[in-house]
Here is the input.
Amino acid sequence: MDVGWAGVDLLLMASTVKVLRAGGVARGARLSSVEAQGARSGLRSGLAAGGGRFASLPRMAKVAAVAGTAYVVVRHPSLVSALGANVAKWLSLPVWLGQFVIWLLVLLPVLLMVRFVWRWILVPVLWLLMPLLRFCFSRFVATTNISARKSKEIITPAS
Here is the structure.
């Protein structure tokens, strides 16, 4: 059974890599002569070139890369934890610190989306619903008080 799911994972990641390579070929075909000459002369090197690679990919390749990463994170979170542990060992840091940093980087987009939804959707909706909730709560309390008074009248014997 595990072999079958490993095959599905491999198929998904291989198709992602294929889309990324196709995007790179398409991007290379679109390079103007000035951009190609600048890249050949070494103007873009080091970390700046690595950081700009993802931004320069076609939209389809970006979607495939993010979807593939999300799939691996959801289906195999132990791989992410192992990556954090290995990076921490390479940098001579505690394992928990490496795992914390890796998971923070993985979950940061989710936390930002939750913050956006909370701030711009839930808070205004709750703000609009508060008068209705107050009204319903006051009616509930008033109804409860009337019911309590009636039950005391029924229980109390007439003198």
Notes: Residues 95-155 form the longest helix (61 residues). Residues 35 and 83 are 35 Å apart (CA to CA). Residues 77-159 form one domain. Confidence is low (pLDDT under 50) at residues 42-48.
